[in-house]
Amino acid sequence: MLAKRATKDLVRPAVAAAGRGDLTKVCSVVMVWYVASCWATTSTKRLLHKRLLRKDELLLFQMFGTVVYLQLMKLSGLLKFNHTISTVLFLKYEVLGSTLAYLFGFLTLQFGLHMVSVSFAITMRGFEPVTSCMFSILVLSETLNRLQWVAILLVCAGISLCAGADKTWTLEGLLILVSCDVCFSCRSLCVKLLRRKCAEESLEKMTGPSIFYITAVGSSLALIVWQVFKYFVFSPTVRRVTRGDLLNLLLNSACFTLYNAMSYILLGMVEMSVHAIGNAVRQVVVIVYSVYVFSSPLTTTNVLGILCAMTGVALYSVFTEITIEKPTNATLYMRANSKEEDGDEGLSVGEVELSRV
Q: How many domains does the chain divide into?
């Protein structure tokens, strides 16, 4: 008994220190996530207005840069991939669908950023849960609870307020951004089908960073093929890029990679509900930063609409997690038994893991 108490007295300070270290890591990841997201969005808007590259050329630069930066993150140990070539070939149709949806999603987003203000574009991206719900109901035969429907209504109400108060949007821009949401919802659907097939075939579930890397590689290859075809068929004019422009492009692709990669890293560190709330706050931060950078007009109705839409997005993710992870009686019984067994050992699960280090 004395030995057990002494062990606990030694372990508890270490656990507290580890908790503080984890909190510091989470805060650091969130800060990089927010800063990279702000810079990537606003610099993309600037590059599009400068007409330095066409939209497909800029997206190719971003995707190719993503592949390179992700490899560097893998070598440094920041990200881990668990996919194999045989698994990708076995899931080729799901991977292809996810890649095409990802590619057209970002391409339509760039068209939208060029046509409307950043604040309206980011708010319209919050409409994605609505289109995702429609796909889940129609394709996967899933059902939604009342709380999820309330969150969806909040998103629709917020976007309606923004559309009524924002004078920069056009019908073409609105349709393009809705198409963007549909594309990203298709990507989510393909990822769900991919993971369902992995479960059915007893394959290792592909992680988020692996899916991100595969879609980036596939998108880069598709864009390279398109550029070669366009060069020989349409013979477009080749633009000259200065050193300053090249530096801006490299920074843009780095931030583009960072804000996507940090999202996956944070998702592995915190609960999905916390990540959803952080993502909603990130969108508000990007909107506020873009308003400051571009001096965009923002009314009280705009602010209410943005907050309403982002709250709906966060609540939808939280309610979805509650629905998915609501424990059954059997699960609670198993957890209770496992806690009793851990109690007999004298150390909790967290303390056992720490003592192995």
A: 2
